[in-house]
Design goal:
Elements lengths: L11 H32 L4 H24 L7 H20 L9 H11 L2 H4 L11 H24 L9 H32 L4 H17 L8 H25 L3 H14 L5
Helix pairs in contact: 1-2, 2-3, 2-7, 3-4, 6-9, 6-10, 7-8, 7-9, 7-10, 8-9, 9-10
Amino acid sequence: MRLLSGPFETEPAARALSIARPLAVVSAAAALGAGAGLAAETGLGAAGQFGHALASASLHAGFLAAGWVAAFDGREGWRGPALGGAAALVLTALAARVSLAGALAYLLVPLVHARAAGAWRRNLEWVGWRLPCAPRSILLGAAAGTFLGLHLIITASLTLGYAVAVHDVGRYLAALAYDVGVNALTAEWLFRGAIFSALWRRWSFWPAAMVSTACALVRYLLDPALPQAIEAMAGATFYLSLLGLACCALRAWSGSLVPGYFATVAFFVAYRTLLV
């Protein structure tokens, strides 16, 4: 299967430069926001929780913005959606720090993103921003994520002694709201949408899927929220690699990011039972 795409309009070197410049701007802005947030977290005492929210939102805003840059090949048009997504992420992250109920605001982020992407729908079909060709692929995605999630919790409970339980329903639902509104969205939009699709235009499926999955894996392994025990890191590497490859396969088969999004959400529904 080949990704439908038009011929390149610019020379490879010029095109790479047109993407590199805005990506550098996005990276600098995300690093600046994250740095300011971490500084506030350590220097403002109780109010430092809002600094943590700013740091987290800045990083995810950077992921979304990088996806927009890649989707537009660095051309004009990415700034408005990127800024809108960044504003939504910062506001919802701050709301989540105010109360557990405020975490439900995370569910608004995909709506903001979808509204922005809807205006550019024809330009974004090549990254998978479309409904799947086969609706059953959504069910397959949810089933694949559920299978991996259940396999994870069975393995973690039987071999590593992790307790599978939801001790605090409010915190569990808040974590799921984050996964639905931010975690799965940024993973699919950047890693399976922009990165995988761009590489798939040039390479065959497996090299593109492996590089995309490796990038996503680095993002998760560097997340301080991930348990730092060796067995936890090894398990995360295994299951998140399988999840990433499965999402790339769903993206290739269905032509859409939607099945992979459901797979990611379903996986984290199970995963959160080990942490909350």
